[in-house]
Fold:
Amino acid sequence: MIDLENVAYSYGGGELLSDISLKLAPGSFHFLTGPSGSGKTTLMKLCYGALLPTAGQVKLFDADVRGLTRDDVALLRRRVGVVHQDCQFLDHLPVSENIALPLHVSGRSAEAGGEDLDDLMHWVGLTERANALPPELSGGERQRAALARAVIMSPDVILADEPTGNVDWDMSQRLLRLLIELNRMGKTVLVATHDLSLIRATKAHVQARVLRIANRRIQLAGADL
Amino acid sequence: MKGVVAFLERAFHSDSQADRVVPPSGFTAQLTLFAAGAMAFLAVFALALSLAAGRLADQWGEELARSATIRIAAPADQQQAQTNAALRILETTRGVAQARALTDEEQAALLAPWFGATLELDTLPVPRLIEVIETAEGMDAAGLRLRLAAEVPGAVLDDHSRWRAPLVKAASRLKTLGWLAIILIASVTAAMVTLAANAALAANAQVIAVLRLVGAIDDYIAHAFIRRFTLRALIGAAVGMVLGMIAVLLLPSGGDETASFLTGLGFQGIHWLYPLLIPPLAAGVAFLATRLAARRTLEGLT
Structure:
């Protein structure tokens, strides 16, 4: 699905990431961890075409990102659901319309009013908040709304960058459970987090691999967790 | 051609959801409407000026260029003979389509403003006038003068060209200036819409980022802005055009045919339809300006 080969990335100064090779197989569940500033977000951005590698090759769904046009990248994002730590919405539209936004922009507005949206809203526990505006939501509600928006197109891959960064322990457990459910439905999931206890708590429920960024490189962290 | 049609359909197809993704902006929207209206209003006048000046240039150019006058001032007993001689010369002159001596009644009518209608022409030594209508190629005025001088000593040819030329030149220059004003108005409209669109794009950076993240292609994002500005320019220009046409309609008209340029300012006949082109043109200008601005902004994003 997502295939990085000897990828390096630099923001101008020295390299932030070097020699990264990573393969996300369909249906896999990966954690990405590492200290702040180690390049977790940068690696995530490489995975959905927001950044181009300065060296090496990134293949998304078997297509080299360097060969993609801007619109190709846009179409690709309909197959990749992204959740950010500080998720942004269209602040003038109610939550339900924000969650349905990917359907609208891809010309599937007809499905936006259907049962699927109601089910999804119920699944993330936002049914009661459907008509609220995004600025009125709490941190946990925003994260769940962002997750719902990321999965409404039924993407093959879900990338979540610190999805539990702004929420308390219970809420982060709840969010992780939603991600585990998605993984059981066959979605590929990659979660970046610096919270090791969250990783431990999750590993009891799903067979997850943990990738750690250290010294600009990525390594498989195994038994020590 | 098919591509263009599809493109226009997509551009103007009303997608209420797509229009809603960009938050409403009250004040700048009204400014765009106002500016488009004001520009259309000015464009109506520039158009009226241009068309009126063009009309005058054509009229003067055509009428005066094709006509000349020969004045026969001779002793009363020779006048008829000299007139006939002049007419004979004219018959054999190349470039003369038609020549005829004015009748006494016509001459009296011409003089009436000065001497009153009751004047008996016979009592005055009034010169005889011959009206000469030229063909499209025109005649050789200098040659004709020489022949007249040889055979009709009392004849004076006045081909109007001395005072005609600068007037026609001024009128056509005025017409050019009018068109230049219209082009400037269109450019200013484009500049104004570009500024407004850039402001809107900058103010909505977060909206654009969100749309891009959820998989909106550039066309979708751009058209949300393009539709908005095109529509504003169209509505503003339509209102401005209507007001401009009413103002032109209310201009005093009349006066006789030599009448002044000022009372002739306005539209005539089919020209009344020309201003109707202003709103679609303004919309087209706004469309292109917004499209360029949106493309530039979007290409700077990941």
Chain A is about 30% helix and 25% strand. The mean pLDDT of chain A is 88.
